[in-house]
Amino acid sequence: MTDITVTAASDIEVDREALDASIGEFTEKNGAYYAAAFHRIHESIGLVPLTFNLAAAALGPVWSAMRGVWGFFWAFILLEMIAWVQIGRGAWGVLGGDLAARALKQLERARSFLDKAEAAKLAGEDAERFETLAGNLTRAAEKSQAAADAAAAQATSILLFGLVLLLVFKLIQGVWANIVYEKQYTNWRIEPDRVESGLRRRNLALGIL
What is the DSSP secondary structure assignment for residue 193, as one 8-state letter? Predict the structure, then answer.
C-alpha cells in the first residue's frame, strides 16, 4: 500500500464541476464568483486568503443579512454604528454650542452693568463696582467663546476620524466576508436543513429594519 502525502489543498483531487454546482445551489446568485472565491480559499496556504467581496464592503451588514450570516451582521452593525455616530457628531453636531450661548449671556450681562455704570456716573454716584463686574463678565465671556471655538474646531477632526473608521470597517468586511461565507457553506453541506443559504427577502427586510 502506498502512502500519499498531501502538502497543500491543491493536491487534493476534487470534482470541480460538482463542487461548483453545490456552491451555486448554496449561493443561488453569483455562484460563479463565490465558486472562484471558495476555490481560492481552499487552495490558500496563508493565514488570510486573499479575496475581497466588494458587495460586502459596500453594503456592509445589509449583505450579511441578505446572506443570513448573522454573526457577521451583528458584529459589524455595532462597529459601523460607532463610526456613523462620529460622522454625525462631526457633520451635524453643534460642538461647543452651549459654551457659545453662555458667552453671549455673559456679554449681555456685562453690557447691562456698563449701562448701570454709565447711569451711576450721570447721577454723580460711584460706578467702579459696576465697571468691575462688567470687566469680570467680559473676560469670562472671552474664555467661554474661546472654549466654544476650540470645541467647534474638533468637529472636522471627529468627522475625519469617523470616515476613516468606517472605511477600515468596510475593508475588513470586504476581506473577511468570503472567508466567513465559505465556512457557512461548509456547515450547510453538513446540515442543509439548519444552515441558511441563498438570498432571502425576509432577511434583507430584517437587516434594513
Answer: T
